[in-house]
Amino acid sequence: MYDIETFYAGLVEHGLILPTGIRGGYGRGAVFEKILRGFNELVSRTAAPDGAEEMTFPPIVARTLIEKVGYMNSFPQLAGSVHSFFGNEAQARDITSRTQAGERWEDLLDITEVMLTPAACYPVYPVFSGLLPNGGRLVTVLNWVYRHEPSDEPTRLQSFRMREYIRVGRSEDVVAWRDAWLLRSLELLRGLGLAAQSDVASDPFFGRAGKMMAANQVDQRLKFEILVPVISEEKPTAICSFNWHQDHFSSKFGIRNADESLASTACLGFGLERVTLALIKAHGYDPQRWPEAVRAQLSL
Ligand code: ATP
Ligand code: ZN
């Protein structure tokens, strides 16, 4: 019933995903995209009364932003860095001959000012710098993100989309917002026939010091996830995450409440490919045969 290879083969056979040879980098067929878009729009309709500001960023961030938020201390193993060629004619000829001979050539590249966006919310925090309006702000973004975790498992991608909401303001408002969304998301996902459960969680911080950071994150209940069985019953997949960053971002970017106190931030992110795969696992490879109530909500 839960078998990674059979599930992957079924997704390919039904044209839902298109193998590219990249682990965790497959293409998406039209039906897969229709489900994903339907879910994203359902999220928008559900959140509409909150009046979030919509922002759009490219899937790259400033290298200085990655450095400033400490991403390379916490998650160096997941980072994606953009490099390019800055050399002369002779070095360009060297690249040509080495690539054609199947030799290594990356030492002829140098780093650019950008890295791949690791979480859709990252470009938003610098925008909040300075004094916030009374009541804080609420922003929504949708973006492609990169994580270096190549895998044959269809729910673990290197490049995927996150639909996020980001709340900034006083701690009590931010935490109340996070708690309300946890219930709202569970209801939303269960309403689509998914066996969704929430749990405290931690991020995959690197190394031995990282283990302590993860334990601290659990102790302080800073991260929650909504889990659904997709490729395993015992190890359900996180399809949505809720993070309370306390003043991690606001101290770095000088984000202050209207009364000058240091602000607090939280974000929630739906992993759109994972939600799509969870729906396919729950209802089958052909959305035309899904329960009518689910199809109606997703405009399928
Ligand atoms: P932070 O802001 O602390 O980095 P975030 O909410 O922006 O956190 P995560 O909690 O790491 O980011 O991930 C958000 C969601 O993205 C997860 O709940 C999951 O659904 C999805 N996701 C994470 N990693 C992968 C992956 N490798 N492949 C597919 N989806 C993923
Ligand atoms: Zn986030």
How far apart, in Å, are the first and last alpha carbons?
25 Å
Strand order of the largest sheet: 3-8-9-14-12-11-10
What's the total number of strands? 14
Could you report the average pLDDT, rounded to the nearest whole number?
Answer: 97
SSE succession: HEEHEEHHEHEEEEHEHEEHEEHH
Shape: globular
β-strand percent reads 15-25%
Q: Fraction of residues in helices? A: 25-40%
Low-confidence stretches: none
Can you characterise this structure?
- By secondary structure, the protein is an alpha+beta fold.
- It is built from ten helices and 14 strands.
- The strands form four sheets. It has a seven-stranded mixed sheet. A three-stranded antiparallel sheet has the order 4-6-5.
- α2 packs across α9 (272-283).
- It is globular.
- The protein starts with a helix and ends with a helix.
- The mean pLDDT is 97.
- The site of zinc ion has 6 residues, from β14.
SSE order and pairing:
Blueprint: H1 4-13, E1 17-18, E2 27-28, H2 30-47, E3 53-54, E4 60-62, H3 63-68, H4 71-74, E5 81-84, H5 89-100, E6 110-116, E7 130-131, E8 137-146, E9 159-169, H6 171-190, E10 197-200, H7 207-219, E11 223-228, E12 237-246, H8 248-253, E13 255-256, E14 264-271, H9 272-283, H10 292-297
Parallel strand pairs: 3-8, 7-13
Antiparallel strand pairs: 1-2, 4-6, 5-6, 8-9, 9-14, 10-11, 11-12, 12-14
Helix pairs in contact: 2-9
The structure holds adenosine-5'-triphosphate and zinc ion.
